[in-house]
Design a protein that fits this description.
The protein is α+β, with helices and mostly antiparallel strands. It has helices at residues 10-14, 48-66, 103-119, 146-163, 169-187, 193-199, 204-207, 209-228, 235-245, 257-265, 267-277, 285-290, 327-330, 353-362, 404-413, and strands spanning 24-30, 33-41, 73-81, 86-89, 93-99, 295-301, 307-308, 311-316, 319-325, 339-343, 346-347, 369-376, 379-386, 388-389, 391-397.
């Protein structure tokens, strides 16, 4: 008003992102909602005319999942620059930052994030704990159900795209599902999802497990429910019913959250809560995927001639960091958190670590000794270790034939419930 930005309260101000610059703009009505898209692209490689078809696909798919559009008017702000920073959902808008590139190539990542953030209008803006209604910006009150708000949302964003035909089953299993299994390898399951949820504000190291393990728990529960009900009810139905019965004006009581989920899901969910959310038991991935006619192996022998360092790495701000170490390699002295400086005398950087460590390690024979220089808690160390036989982790295959029950469950699992 008169050049000023006016908001009813701080919450409304915090829920109103602003984007200024040389922008492209598109507006369309999508399944009854007025959707406005604004885009800044550093070198004009991405424009809203490219974004809008993807937005329509996501909104139409979400509509088919929940049976209605959760909002009448919605605004999306996109920035394409030099880095990926993900997205943030607000009450009637969202904002995204992605690395600029050819849109056909970066669309899968953009579409994943957009689907996730848009589904936050259902979880937690519609299905939520009453703790989230009592926001204290200076001293946040933790909820035991962050795993639900982020993990189930992450599962929904993947399964929505599969059921809408925006992803193939290979993309879903080999990219989304498998990647989350690797993430759980990295983050571990030493702390339960409930404990991570309650301590997320002070325990950032474990926080990302709400996305990986939380989404895996949701995926496995969905399969279990579909199998037990002969395809009549899955997690999609639970979410839709909770949204209708509770919704924006009626949060779920924090202390009864688990109890209400059990009422809507059935007794199977009580066992899941006890074992995999309150507890941190190993997830029954093999057992659940078998119900879909998918053979899962956590680990199997690979090419016997190929050596392997037995580690996962990531380019972090502090350097190339070891994320996960095979138990056999841990016995040789390497640990998660080590920062790699040199490998067989070659400096290791964010630009070359994939070539030097992954490809370089695979060129060494099994049992070959290599030298690795690391920083551990700031102290330089020089270690020698040996390559181990290459193993295929988190392998998936299909059986020659499916049983009638597997056929039924897979058919309903791959399609929208309503």
């Amino acid at each position: 008003q008169n050049g000023d930005i006016v908001a009813q309260n701080f919450g409304a101000l915090a829920s109103a992102p602003i984007l200024a610059g040389f922008l492209t703009y598109s507006q369309e009505r999508i399944v009854g909602s007025e959707v406005s898209v604004y885009c800044y692209s550093k070198t004009d490689r991405v424009v809203t005319a490219s974004l809008m078809p993807m937005v329509k696909d996501v909104f139409n798919a979400t509509y088919r999942f929940i049976g209605e559009m959760p909002i009448d008017r919605y605004t999306m702000l996109f920035i394409f620059e030099d880095k990926n920073a993900g997205g943030v959902e607000y009450h009637n808008s969202s904002a995204f930052v992605f690395q600029e590139g050819d849109f056909a190539q970066i669309r899968p990542r953009v579409q994943d994030v957009v689907t996730h953030e848009f589904f936050h209008l259902i979880i937690p803006f519609s299905i939520r704990s009453d703790i989230l209604d009592k926001v204290n910006f200076f001293k946040p009150t933790p909820t035991a159900h962050l795993w639900f708000f982020e993990g189930v949302t992450e599962w929904a964003s993947d399964i929505i795209q599969l059921r809408a035909g925006l992803k193939s089953i290979d993309q879903y299993i080999l990219n989304d599902f498998r990647q989350k299994l690797f993430q759980e390898d990295i983050y571990g399951a030493d702390i339960s999802l409930r404990e991570i949820s309650l301590t997320s504000h002070r325990n950032q190291e474990e926080y990302l497990n709400v996305y990986s393990r939380g989404a895996l728990v949701a995926a496995l529960l969905d399969i279990l429910l579909l199998d037990r009900t002969d395809g009549r009810r899955g997690l999609q139905d639970v979410i839709v019913d909770l949204s209708k019965d509770y919704g924006k004006e009626r949060p779920l009581p924090e202390e009864r959250f688990f109890e209400i989920l059990i009422d809507y899901s059935g007794p199977e969910f009580e066992n899941f809560i006890r074992r995999y959310i309150i507890g941190n038991e190993k997830l029954p991935v093999k057992e659940m995927l078998d119900k879909l006619g998918i053979i899962y192996e956590e680990e199997r022998p690979g090419d016997e001639r190929r050596g392997d360092l037995g580690m996962f790495f990531s380019a972090e701000p502090g350097g190339v960091t070891v994320l996960w170490v095979d138990p056999a390699v841990q016995q040789m002295g390497l640990r998660p958190g080590d920062v790699v400086q040199r490998f067989n005398g070659t400096p290791v950087t964010a630009a070359n670590y994939s070539e030097v460590l992954y490809r370089g390690g695979s060129r060494l024979p099994v049992g070959d000794t290599y030298r690795i220089e690391i920083l551990r808690e700031g102290r330089p160390l020089r270690l020698s270790a040996q390559t181990i036989p290459y193993k295929v982790r988190h392998s998936f295959s299909l059986p020659p034939m499916l049983s009638p029950q597997q056929q039924r469950v897979r058919q309903v699992w791959m399609n929208f419930r309503r």
